[in-house]
Amino acid sequence: MSIATSFAAAPYAALLGLLAVALTVRVILGRVKTGIQTGDGGNAQLAQAIRAHANFAEQTPLALLLVVLAQTAGAPTGIVHALGSVLLLARLASAWGLSHSLGPTMPRQAGAGATALVVAAASLLIVYRLF
Prior knowledge:
Layout: H1 3-6, H2 10-34, H3 44-72, H4 77-100, H5 106-130
Helix pairs in contact: 2-3, 2-4, 3-4, 3-5, 4-5
């Protein structure tokens, strides 16, 4: 097994890590700009930045963990890449949607749905591979 095959999920973890940093920096800059250090102070832009970051933090770790565990359980590399790609695109869409509106947006809804699909698919794949 090659290094690329052994670490198929790694590039997605790295790119999602960079997205996490970008969302964190966006909240920090919003806090510096507004002087609001706790909560959102009723500032809509800061609220959007906080929500985009929080949604990422709520959804991404479990989904990514399941992709890595599916790889560890022996899932084919192509499937790991498919799950990682969908997860990355889903989280980008969700972050974009939440950054533009706290209400429903197509990117936000698509990102949420695609993330749920990755969680379900990776979970089922792990169960299938282990049992």
